[in-house]
Amino acid sequence: MAEDQSADVAGLMEEVGRKARASAELLALAPSKAKDAALLAAAMTLRANVDDILDANARDMAFGREKGLTAAMLDRLALDEERIEGIAKGLEAVAALKDPVGDIMADWERPNGLRIERVRVPLGVIGVIYESRPNVTADAGALCLKAGNAAILRGGSESFHSSHAIHDCLVEGLSAAGLPEAAIQLVPTRDRAAVGEMLRGLGGRLDVIVPRGGRGLIERVQTEARVPVFAHLDGVCHVYVDGAADLDMARDIVVNAKMRRTGICGSAETVLVDRACAGTHLRPIIEALLEKGCEVRGDDTVRAEVSAAKQASEDDWYTEYLDAIIAIKVVNGVSEAIEHIGKYGSHHTDAIVTSDEKTAEKFLNEVDSAIVLHNASTQFADGGEFGMGAEIGIATGRFHARGPVGVEQLTSFKYVVRGKGQTRP
């Protein structure tokens, strides 16, 4: 799709919103087979159009380099045949999920004979504003569709061509399944004014906004949005290595949590090491990170142990690097680790490595984060890894959705009450 050069962004977005609302009314009643057929057809179309998608991505990568994107951002933007196949498989995984719409969450009967059901229903029209990652176009569109919602997608300017190439495949899938093509719309302009229109709610036609991107984007959305927001600001994720941790396991988990992909929100940014095992565990963990090319910033104990470590500042404990940099601190046991995470963390994802079940349960119960793990890498903070097929993002708030936002989190509910002529006295 070519970029719409119309100066009337407000009018353009009003039309996008109108089409989305009309599509949402149809999708709320669409059968599961039609939604699944659309997703499977889109996956086939993606595979058939790999070359076109790669050509579009090459244009975006060139634009990103000219724009001065960081290595982490370029990694998020880049597509290859393997990643495109992963996107196609993600569409198939979402199609294979149970349709949440119409699911009876609970039911009961009152003494007066009324039968009450709590039933899942779509949210309506969901706006997704994201940066860099063109795969979000497919993930978000698929999840919204599966949950019976219309989607308005606004990708970043750097992923404009890639996102449109992927979106074209989604539209073909919708058309093949007999569903409205406007069920998944991609904002056809790079003009930032389009974001402002979405934040104002498109005249009441937008029900929820999900932002995925850097702090600047998230803060703007949370500050300006006039509709509910599912979001997180930062992924300041921790791995706590307890005194009862197996060394080999701890080393493997820390290296994976940081270095598998440094630019994702589930990447570990701080490692906390129990003083009880610092003498045996600290140096091997640091050396393994350094060997992988990771810059280590640490407290005085860390620097005394390994001279290659740099001095950590107070700001480092708050920082989401999204790069091959990690902060390491020695703490006095699990309680101090929990205290540190509570002060410096972002309520995203935090892990403990230990063979002591009691200590693990204390950590899992007391760390107030959307995702907590025991003896596993923080890189598992992903809807696909949770069996959700995909995710729109990781929500760190406390209302409605928390953690990976998948199909169930993209629904609300209503109460269905069945009677036999009862009236209230």
List the helices and strands and how they pair.
Elements: H1 9-27, H2 32-48, H3 50-67, H4 71-77, H5 81-96, E1 104-109, E2 115-122, E3 125-130, H6 135-146, E4 150-154, H7 160-176, E5 184-186, H8 193-199, E6 208-212, H9 215-224, E7 237-241, H10 247-259, E8 268-274, H11 275-291, E9 295-298, H12 300-305, E10 310-311, E11 325-331, H13 333-344, E12 349-353, H14 357-366, E13 371-374, E14 394-395, E15 403-404, E16 411-418
Parallel strand pairs: 3-4, 3-6, 4-5, 7-8, 7-12, 8-11, 9-10, 9-11, 12-13
Antiparallel strand pairs: 1-2, 2-16, 14-15
3D structure, described in words:
With 425 residues, this protein is of the alpha/beta class. The protein has 2 domains: 235 residues, 3-Layer(aba) Sandwich (Aldehyde Dehydrogenase, Chain A, domain 1), CATH 3.40.605.10; 144 residues, Aldehyde Dehydrogenase, Chain A, domain 2 (3-Layer(aba) Sandwich), CATH 3.40.309.10. Helices cover 43% and strands 19% of the residues. The chain is built from 14 helices and 16 strands. A 7-stranded parallel β-sheet has the order 10-9-11-8-7-12-13, sandwiched between helices. Helix 6 links the parallel strand 3 and strand 4. Helix 1 packs across helix 8. It starts with 8 loop residues before the first helix and ends in a 7-residue tail after the last strand. The mean pLDDT is 94.
